Amino acid sequence: MSAETPLSATPRTRLGRHRERGRTDRADLLAVLDAGMICHLGIVQDGAPVVLPTAYGRVGDTLYLHGSSANRTLLAAAGQQVCVTVTHLDGLVCARAVFSHSVNYRCAVIFGTARLVTGDDELLTALRAVTEQLIPGRWDAARAPVRKELAATAAIAVPLTEASVKIRSGPPVDEPPDLDLDGWAGVVPAAVRFAEPVPDPALAPGTSVPAHIRDLVRRGA
Description:
Layout: E1 22-23, H1 26-34, E2 38-45, E3 48-59, E4 62-68, H2 72-77, E5 81-94, E6 102-113, E7 115-116, H3 120-134, H4 147-151, E8 153-159, E9 162-168, E10 186-189, H5 211-219
Antiparallel strand pairs: 1-9, 2-3, 2-5, 3-4, 4-8, 5-6, 5-10, 6-9, 7-8
């Protein structure tokens, strides 16, 4: 499925409020997912709703979510309908009236049937995707998982066939009578930034910070 393919329009993905903030291009969905690091997985477990924050990665039109093989919530998702969300806070929108305050954000919501990843080859693909989503370049710089570690790891796959994207940007939208009120209004931008790397005390003397870690720090600078 190409990035030009429009997003699905289903009862679950059809927006109610602020439809003007919706995006229908699959490229917008992929951009929101590729810019994130943590998602929230929503499932019904033992008759009650559960929301699990976890790392994820994308390969084509498949989203991989990672966790321990002892994680009951992740394992319970296999074979059932799930909802996965990824949200970016881009700014706090300060208006003249409290009611008109808002946030600038990018949000993707994915619905689908989760599938437990069982083969070692796909599990390695999933783990690489998750690792590279968090720290690009890290997979090739670290030791690959051994069989015992793979056995202790679980991953589920969620197809990107049913999803919605909603984005708000720009200044506050006050009611016309409030525009004459005193006081400041505007946007306070927000972004994720990484600080200087802190080396492991057990590192051999003289071990330098690798380029891919330096790139990660510079990415949000």
